[in-house]
Amino acid sequence: MFELKHLKTLTALKETGNIKKAAAKLFTSQSALSHQIKDLEQRLGEPLFIRNTSPVEFSHAGQVLLDLAKEIFPAITNAEQVLKAPTKQAQNLKLAIACHACFQWLLPISQQFSQQHPALAIEFLDDDFQQQALSADILFTDYQQQEDNYLYQEIGQFEVIAVSALNDSALGSKYDYVEAEQFKSVTLLTYPLPNKQLDIFQLFLTPKGITPAKIKQVNNSHVMLQMAAAGMGVATLPDWLVSSLSQQALLTRKRLGEAGLYKKLYAKYQANNRQRDIIEQLIPQVIAAFKQLYVV
């Protein structure tokens, strides 16, 4: 019965006040516009406005169509803007973790961040770590080195501590720290990694030529602490991890060496990473989450 062009004509007529000005606004002739209006009035069976009024006064039918135009044209404009806007492609952010125990608190943060950014998919890389770390957008690591084109953001500092059963005398009871030599007689509980990748060997035992009496590899941090609490060995873990788990009340905690063994956790990423903006939005949330690990 009517088309968008008719709504545009009535809108122009309302804005300008007469057919001559409306025709000029629509870049058409006055006669063509008059013909269009008469054609629509014939279809409707009633006039759209009262002739010889200035400014033009619309009939009931004309006002109904004007009200419709007020609703339709903004919606059309909005749809055009949406369709013309560049499509946001889904982003995939790959994370790799050299800190074996960090997964348990990084996972909730990544899930929360994904909810804040619906177009973002976060993937944790864990198979063939050495190779996967090269393709990661962010590597969470406790080792920093000078590399061209790589940036390191400090997440926080932690202490690696030794934990054993509450009444276990394997590490001695005289001091609140343990010396490397004392590991000669204990079963050391470790993650299933080569010794050279474990802090307890790289930074504490190997430099002094110490080898534990026995090494038992355990996949899970919770299980490792349960085994330590049961007197099945000694574990060396980040202090925040020990404090966050319920078994801490059943454990004896000791520093590694009189001065303690402290490390820093970093987020490593390429300076020219095309997702640098989203990376640098995530890191402050990771830093805040790490600080919460020490809040009692």
UniProtKB/TrEMBL annotation:
<dbReference type="InterPro" id="IPR005119">
    <property type="entry name" value="LysR_subst-bd"/>
</dbReference>
<dbReference type="Pfam" id="PF00126">
    <property type="entry name" value="HTH_1"/>
</dbReference>
<comment type="similarity">
    <text>Belongs to the LysR transcriptional regulatory family.</text>
</comment>
<dbReference type="InterPro" id="IPR036388">
    <property type="entry name" value="WH-like_DNA-bd_sf"/>
</dbReference>
<dbReference type="InterPro" id="IPR000847">
    <property type="entry name" value="LysR_HTH_N"/>
</dbReference>
<keyword id="KW-0805">Transcription regulation</keyword>
<keyword id="KW-0804">Transcription</keyword>
<protein>
    <submittedName>
        <fullName>LysR family transcriptional regulator</fullName>
    </submittedName>
</protein>
<dbReference type="GO" id="GO:0003700">
    <property type="term" value="F:DNA-binding transcription factor activity"/>
</dbReference>
<dbReference type="InterPro" id="IPR036390">
    <property type="entry name" value="WH_DNA-bd_sf"/>
</dbReference>
<dbReference type="GO" id="GO:0000976">
    <property type="term" value="F:transcription cis-regulatory region binding"/>
</dbReference>
<keyword id="KW-0238">DNA-binding</keyword>
<dbReference type="Pfam" id="PF03466">
    <property type="entry name" value="LysR_substrate"/>
</dbReference>
<feature type="domain" description="HTH lysR-type">
    <location>
        <begin position="2"/>
        <end position="59"/>
    </location>
</feature>
